[in-house]
Each structure stands twice: as structure tokens, then as C-alpha cells.
Design goal:
Blueprint: H1 3-12, E1 24-26, H2 27-37, H3 39-60, E2 65-74, H4 86-95, H5 108-126, E3 132-146, H6 149-215, H7 221-256, E4 265-267, H8 284-290, H9 292-312, E5 318-331, E6 346-354, H10 362-428, H11 434-468
Parallel strand pairs: 1-4
Antiparallel strand pairs: 2-3, 3-5, 5-6
Length: 472
């Protein structure tokens, strides 16, 4: 390899940092910042948090539900409720008298049993009308069988979480891919500017030679005008490329989620095609495992399958076990409370079984719709697999073409350099025209830029094939 070509290769593979540069970012730093600030990544992270929460909530449906309820009721327009012994007292008074046969009007049974019992009954009925009626209760509900929806719901939540995890990985990979391509484009523009400035130095040397030759009568004013026109055209190209570089830099900063800063610089290298990078694995069996889009579709297919089970649960019963305990306190005054006694607490246990017998064929239609949705996902997955196969083939062909273009560009640079050297030497001896020299100089600059572009295109093609095979 010639010395000039070696210098060109080094230039093509790296970004130089000006001495006046402010903040400098490497490729990895740019990728990490973009990952931190990407709105797509942040949204995917929130989706993953939500999916994880749904898994926890799914397990929560399998646990019992315990509820506490407390009620205080104030009823207006009621008198105080008092416990009395009117009937017991009346029986006692009647026992002191006798009937026409001389028998007591009330016996001991009336006094000790009937009277107090009726008094208690009356009090119990009156107690429903206390002004202050309070209660505290705890109920527990345990779903024993919910048409299979609890366990299946957990599996669906897990599948959705897996989709969210893979989606997050995919978003991060896309950010890395976008930053890498933007970085490569910036390297190309920086190197192109350096090549143009080197070409400008060569043209300036030619201009100085023509100016000296004009003074000595060895060149004409037309020769000088030609060189000056070429210099103006080159300066215009340099200015245009520098503007493109500013746009590319701002685009990279935008991808990183940063504000535009004029003194920001980037440092990094392109992959060297000659370094012998491993060719991506294009086996479809492995691609199907690596392509995140296919993994997400497979998990979605699993979710749709489970959803059919959920809908078919409409034909099955729901079994629920319930239990509760309740303390009630009814008084004339709010502050008057009785200590709770276990024997007087309201306690219950119940088993509830419900099953839909007819709902207007909603269950049947829901199952049909769920199966149709599953088939749509399966068709989408099959289409994606065919599309990925075509994408890999296209990217492989592009990479092969890029390798060929690099070899062609190398030969063009060597030939253009030899042509320029020979033409320049001959021109200084008066054996070549100035027009041929300018053409040779322009051909050399074009060849160098083409080589630079072929390196960048190879990197893009390699990245694209890595992405297509799921290795990026």
C-alpha cells in the first residue's frame, strides 16, 4: 500500500478532534446518552413497569380479599329507648290478688318467666329504633375457581411482560443503530472536509506555480483564471460540506437528546473492512430466535391462545368462599358503647357458586373473535418471517456490493494518485496542459471521496445486516 493511500485509510477510519474543540463525545458516550434521554426508551421502560405490575396484580387475584367496613347511623325523630319491667311488675301485683275462686291472679311462672320474657321481647323490638346505630365488620372473600381466569390471567400478564422486555431491548437497539449511522455519517463528512483541504493545498501550490510562470512569461492569464475558477469551486464545495457537517452534527445531538452546541465534537472510528469482521449468522433458525420482532409476535400469539381460554371460561362456573364477622352497637348516645362479646358477634361462612346459563350467545361470539384474533397474529408472524428472509438476502447482497466497491475505490485512488503525480511533473516541465492537471487533481479528489464513501457504505451495510439477523 502506498504512503498516500495509508494516510487516506487512517483518515477515513477516524474522527479528528480540533485543538479548539469543546465537549467531546466518543461513540459509546453518545450511545449511552441517547439511551438515557430517548423518549422511546423511556416509554418502553414505563410499559415494562406497567407489565410487571400486572403480573403482581394477577397473583393478587389468587389471594383472599379482606374488607373492613364501619358504619355509624344517626336517626332523627326517635325517643330514648329504655329497658322496662312493666309486665313483670304487673304480674307481681296481680299475684297479690285473687280471682272469684280465691286463686292468685298470677302465679310464680307468670312473675318469673312470662313477664320478664315479654318485657325482653318488647325491649328487643324497641332497640331497633335507637337513635345511634353503629357497626364494624370484617369480610373475607376467597375465589376458589373463577372459570380458569385467575391462573390464565397470570400467564397472559407474564407473556405481556416478556413482550415489554423485548420491546425495550428493541428500542435500545434501534437507538444504538441510529446513533451509529449518524456517527458514521459525521466521520465521513469530517474526513471529506480534510480531503478537500488537502486538495486545496495542492491547488494552492498549483496556483502559486502559475502565478510565478505568468510573471516569467511561461503561462498565460487564461491559465491563471482556470486555476482561480477551480479554487473558487473547491472553496464552494468546502463551505457546502461544512454546512452539511453542521446539520449532521445537530442531527446526532438531536438523536442524543441534547441541545445544539457549536463547539461539541465527536471522536470515534469506523469499522475497517480489512480487519476481518465476522460475517453475521444468516441461518433462519437462529434469526427467528434473535429477531425481537418475531419474539414479540410469538409472545403475542401465546397471549391470544390464552385469551381463548379466558373467553371459553364463560361456560364454566365461579366458586367463591365468603366469611365475615360483625359487631353492632345500637344506643341512645354516640359515646355509649358495649364491649364486644364473641358469642354476641354476627359470624358467618358461605359458599357461593354462580354459572351463566344464557347470555345471548355473547360467550360463543367472544370465543370466535378471540380465535380470529389469534389467526391474524399467526398470519402477521408468517408474513414477518418471509419479510425478514428477504431483508437478510437484500442486506447480504448490499454488503457484498460494498466490499466490491471498496476494492474498486482503492484501485481508483491508486490510479488517480499516479495520474496526478505524473501529470503534475509533466506540467512543471511544460509537457502537459494546465487543463489536464486540473482534471487530474479533480479526479484524485473525487477518487478519495469515493473511497471514503465506500467505507461508510460498507459500515452501513454491515450494520444493516447485523440488524436484519438480530445480532445488532
Amino acid at each position: 500500500m502506498s504512503r498516500n493511500f495509508a494516510l487516506l485509510s487512517a483518515l477515513a477510519l477516524s474522527l479528528a478532534i480540533p485543538s479548539w474543540a469543546g465537549k467531546t463525545y466518543t461513540r459509546e458516550e453518545a450511545i449511552n446518552i441517547a439511551l438515557e434521554k430517548s423518549s422511546d426508551v423511556k416509554s418502553a421502560e414505563e410499559d415494562l413497569k406497567s407489565a410487571s405490575s400486572q403480573v403482581t396484580a394477577g397473583y393478587g387475584n389468587a389471594y383472599p380479599t379482606i374488607d373492613l367496613s364501619a358504619t355509624v347511623t344517626r336517626i332523627f325523630g326517635l325517643d330514648d329507648v329504655e329497658k322496662t319491667s312493666d309486665l313483670a311488675d304487673a304480674a307481681a301485683n296481680m299475684a297479690a290478688g285473687t280471682d272469684e275462686n280465691g286463686n292468685p291472679m298470677a302465679n310464680a311462672y307468670d312473675q318469673q318467666v312470662i313477664g320478664p320474657a315479654v318485657d325482653g321481647l318488647i325491649y328487643g323490638m324497641k332497640s331497633q329504633g335507637y337513635r345511634w346505630q353503629s357497626s364494624v365488620g370484617i369480610t373475607a372473600t376467597q375465589i376458589l375457581y373463577a372459570q380458569g381466569k385467575v391462573g390464565t390471567g397470570i400467564e397472559i400478564a407474564k407473556a405481556y411482560k416478556r413482550v415489554s422486555e423485548v420491546n425495550l431491548e428493541n428500542k435500545k437497539a434501534q437507538v444504538r443503530y441510529d446513533v451509529a449511522n449518524a456517527f458514521d455519517q459525521l466521520i465521513y463528512l469530517d474526513s471529506a472536509i480534510s480531503i478537500m483541504y488537502a486538495s486545496k493545498d495542492m491547488l494552492q501550490e498549483n496556483l502559486s506555480f502559475v502565478e510565478q510562470s505568468l510573471k516569467s512569461g511561461l503561462a498565460t492569464e487564461l491559465d491563471l483564471i482556470r486555476v482561480q475558477l477551480s479554487m473558487d469551486q473547491l472553496n464552494s464545495k468546502i463551505a457546502s460540506t461544512e454546512k452539511k457537517r453542521i446539520l449532521a452534527r445537530n442531527a446526532l445531538l438531536n438523536t442524543m437528546g441534547l441541545e445544539w452546541e457549536s463547539d461539541v465534537q465527536f471522536q470515534g472510528d469506523l469499522r475497517d473492512p480489512a480487519a476481518g469482521y465476522t460475517y453475521p449468522d444468516t441461518s433462519m433458525a437462529n434469526v427467528k430466535k434473535r429477531r425481537r420482532e418475531l419474539v414479540m409476535l410469538e409472545e403475542t400469539e401465546n397471549m391470544k391462545n390464552l385469551n381463548i381460554e379466558i373467553e371459553e371460561g364463560g361456560y364454566k362456573p365461579t366458586v367463591v368462599l365468603l366469611g365475615g364477622i360483625k359487631y353492632a352497637n345500637n344506643k341512645n348516645d354516640f359515646f355509649d358503647w358495649d364491649a364486644p362479646k364473641w358469642d354476641k358477634l354476627n359470624k358467618y361462612v358461605a359458599l357461593n357458586v354462580t354459572m351463566n346459563l344464557f347470555n345471548g350467545m355473547k360467550t360463543r361470539e367472544s370465543v370466535t373473535q378471540a380465535k380470529s384474533s389469534l389467526r391474524s397474529t399467526q398470519i402477521q408472524k408468517e408474513t414477518a418471517e418471509r419479510g425478514f428472509r428477504m431483508q437478510i438476502e437484500s442486506c447480504a447482497n448490499t454488503l457484498e456490493d460494498a466490499n466490491s466497491q471498496i476494492e474498486i475505490a482503492k484501485r481508483q485512488v491508486d490510479l488517480a494518485q499516479k495520474n496526478y503525480d505524473l501529470t503534475n511533473d509533466a506540467y512543471k516541465l511544460g509537457r502537459e496542459t494546465q487543463l489536464n492537471l486540473l482534471t487530474a487533481e479533480n479526479s484524485l479528489r473525487t477518487a478519495k471521496l469515493d473511497y471514503m464513501n465506500s467505507i461508510v457504505e460498507w459500515n452501513k451495510a454491515y450494520n444493516a445486516l447485523l440488524q436484519a439477523t438480530g445480532e445488532y
